[in-house]
Amino acid sequence: MNVVGTKAPIFKAAAVIEGNAIVADFSLEQFLGKQEVIFFFYPKDFTFVCPTELLAFQQSLPQFLARGVALVGCSTDTEETHLAWLRTPKAKGGIAGVTYPLVADTSKTIAANYGVLGGNWYCDENNQLVYTGLPVAYRGVFLIDKGGIIRYVAVNDLPLGRQVEEVLRIVDMWQHVQQFGEVCPANWVKGSQAMKATPEGVANYLASHIV
Question: What domain of life (predicted)?
Fold first, then answer.
């Protein structure tokens, strides 16, 4: 598992962009120095919880863009499967209308490098390479800053869908910290009071907020 404060693993892979075009060498490096990125993994195309998540992220895409944040999804499916799913109507379990990039991690190395692959390889007693576990990604979310550093990680098990509003809240916290040099207390939301990272700042906040 890649931890907060470390460099996000670099990759180049095929992806579908704008919901209809395959590119061969998509990379998060294009955002370095320009935008923060929410890079999220999901288990598999044409499944059950996954379309609800991808469509929920699409519904909130204007809110991410308004914050200057790029949104990128990734699974271990092929780019052709991504494209077929994107062309499938919602009424038939598809994700037609999704426009943010979907990366095809067919080698499973991206998910493995980010620590969200649901299994692993090992050598058995015959020195044969064996895979155990599920060869798909868990529901990982990574906030990557403009310098390519991971600032937030959350990983859900396969049946547990994510709350997109929480991802937006995390973005808001990070951007508030960067802009104002304050820290964000428990349950902070955009527009509420933050704290100075001093004993006095904490004391003032607790006196006015904690009963």
Answer: Bacteria
Q: E-assigned strands of 2-144?
A: 13-17, 21-26, 36-41, 69-75, 102-104, 117-123, 129-137, 139-144
Separation in Å, CA 132 to CA 42, 50, 77, 95, 127: 19, 23, 18, 30, 15
Q: Does domain 13-161 have CATH number 3.40.50.920?
A: no
Helix pair 164-180, 49-59: axis angle to 10 deg: 40
Query: Where in the sequence numbering do the catalytic residues fall?
Result: 50
Percentage of the chain lying above the pLDDT 90 cut: 91
Distances (CA, A) of 79 to 22, 24, 84: 7, 9, 9
Q: pLDDT digit string (tens) for 95-138?
A: 999 999 999 999 999 999 999 999 888 899 999 989 899 999 99
Give the pLDDT of residue 170: 98
Strand partners, 109: none
Higher-pLDDT residue of 209, 11: 11
Measured CA to CA, the distance from residue 117 to residue 135 in angstroms comes to 7
